[in-house]
Amino acid sequence: MYHQVGEFDAPHSHRSGYCHVRRFRAQLAYFKHFGYHVVSLDDAYAGLFLGRPLPPRPVVLTFDDGYRNFYEYALPALHEHGYPAAVFVITDLIGKRAEWLAEDGREPSPMMDAAMLLDAEHHGVTIGSHSRSHAKLSRIDPVRMREEVNASKRALEDLLAHEVGHFCYPFGRYHEAARDAVAEAGYRTGLTCIRGDANEADNPHEIPRKGISYGDSVAGVAWKLHMKRKKKLVDHT
After folding, report:
1. Beta-sheet pairing, 166-168 with 189-195
2. Which label site among 3, 144, 206, 212 has the fewest CB atoms less than 10 Å from its CB?
């Protein structure tokens, strides 16, 4: 799980929201040299829940929020390695800014616009939903919660002209009703911020991930992949 990738000074807080592009490129090279196979989210879903074969050491690279710096920094590096990825987009903020970052005193970063999303998809990126407005789904009323889930799916499908099958819970906040709404909307997967291997998932709509933060060197990423194997339960509501 990544968020922003680019050239940043070391952040004083919210380090999980940033990855310097230099370290990101080193991490991609590590995957290549040590026998990891970066697979698409669709292939991972089929392997985990439909019994289809996966290559050794499969890894899925996911990026939350849909920042423009993904297009500027991460996508070229992914393209050089021939790696797929998945980006989760906030549909009301396409081509705008991540205004919620200002609540923490951070500069609202620009988001990818429609043309960038289409080009990213052309280069092997799966576009998924990150809701309509980045609301905490477990903290809003049920009617709005379902609208966040369903309207974002419709908006992306109108833009991409095909089905959108993957959802990522904003802030990792969800509850049973939100999980069920994601499933009922027709998403095949729901990705959480619960730390752990994806094969620890109880179902396809509560998939754990391993967060990569600003301070993670190649050794740190290797430790997370090899040693942090057990699902870490967190308050996701």
Report:
1. parallel
2. 144
> Domain map of the chain by residue range?
4-226
Kindly provide the residue ranges of all beta strands, DSSP E only, lying in the chain, ordered along the sequence: 4-6, 18-20, 37-38, 58-59, 62-65, 85-89, 125-129, 166-168, 189-195, 207-209
CATH class of the structural domain 4-226: alpha beta
Count the neighbouring beta carbons within 10 Å of the beta carbon of residue 203. Answer: 11
Q: Tell me the two tokens of residue 123.
A: 């280069």
Sign of dihedral through CA atoms 41, 43, 44, 50?
Answer: positive
pLDDT digits (tens, 9 = 90+) for 63-88: 999 999 999 999 999 999 999 999 99
Taking 3-state DSSP, the helix, strand and coil percentages for the chain, each rounded to the nearest 5, stand at 45, 20, 40
pLDDT in tens, 179-228: 999 999 999 999 999 999 999 899 999 999 999 999 899 999 999 988 76
